[in-house]
């Protein structure tokens, strides 16, 4: 689907009673312009890519290479690329900003304070995301309500005021973890190897770890911070 905007932002579509495929169709139909899907190559995102190939195969997939991703994430990205024959639109941080950050504060400044962590996420994730979303009318994401307290009120369709009021579609908003895995296994989808190692959430290598049985699904992200702080600025 074209990345060019026609200057209009569509209204919120009614997704009451729709399943994930129906939500995708409604979101794409309401777009009135370019649509793209953001992927971290978690199991949710691969499920969503599979659904997109079935109902809206022209929607492009983008990903942000923060420079700190795990090898397993690149591997599953390549498996997805091979399986579906799609291009992934990778976005990188501005190199001068990363160079300055590392010269000034070293390689692990994000562990020193919440302010430093937000600075690193802003440089490595938020700025490239803003470029990825430029010109879009709709972005599609693999968020689910049960993933964290910060996502408990997630709606399948929201207006993303942090990104110019474009529509943000979460077709898996009300899916359980069990549903996600059942779909992935039924369709033999490529799985990020980190999930098999106990990572429920996929992110940057130094800020993501495996969790213990019974721990919150987001417990492995920025585990040194309070739960209400556990977003990186991509989803506000
Ligand atoms: S998740 Fe960690 S390494 Fe990645 S951008 Fe945020 S602070 Fe930096």
Q: In words, what does this structure look like?
A:
The structure is a single chain. With 236 residues, the protein is of the alpha/beta class. It has a single domain, classed as Rossmann fold (3-Layer(aba) Sandwich), CATH 3.40.50.620. Helices cover 36% and strands 11% of the residues. The chain has seven helices and six strands, in the order H-E-H-E-H-E-H-H-E-E-E-H-H. The chain has helices at 20-31, 43-55, 71-84, 95-105, 114-133, 177-186, 193-196; strands at 34-38, 60-64, 88-91, 136-140, 157-160, 166-169. Strands 3-2-1-4-6-5 form a six-stranded mixed β-sheet. A hairpin with a 5-residue loop joins strand 5 and strand 6. Helix 1 crosses helix 2 (43-55) and helix 2 packs across helix 6. The protein is globular. The two termini are 26 Å apart. 39% of the residues are buried. Bound molecules: iron/sulfur cluster. Residues 66, 68, 110, 117, 120-121, 124-125, 203-204, 206-207, 232 line the site of iron/sulfur cluster.
Summarize the structure.
This protein is α/β, with parallel strands linked by helices and 236 residues long. The chain has helices spanning 20-31, 43-55, 71-84, 95-105, 114-133, 177-186, 193-196; strands at residues 34-38, 60-64, 88-91, 136-140, 157-160, 166-169. It has one domain: Rossmann fold, CATH 3.40.50.620.
**Count the helices. How many?**
7
Report the uncertain regions.
1-7
Order of helices and strands: HEHEHEHHEEEHH
Ligands in the model, by name, code or SMILES, are: iron/sulfur cluster
Q: Under CATH, the topology is which?
A: Rossmann fold
Percentage of residues in DSSP E strands: 5-15%
Going by helix content, strand content and strand pairing, the class is: alpha/beta
Give the C-level CATH assignment: Alpha Beta
Widest beta sheet: strand line-up: 3-2-1-4-6-5
Global shape: globular
What's the number of structural domains? 1
Mean pLDDT: 90
Q: What is the CATH architecture annotation? A: 3-Layer(aba) Sandwich
Cα end-to-end separation: 26 Å
Would you report the number of β strands? 6
**Major sheet:** 6 strands, mixed
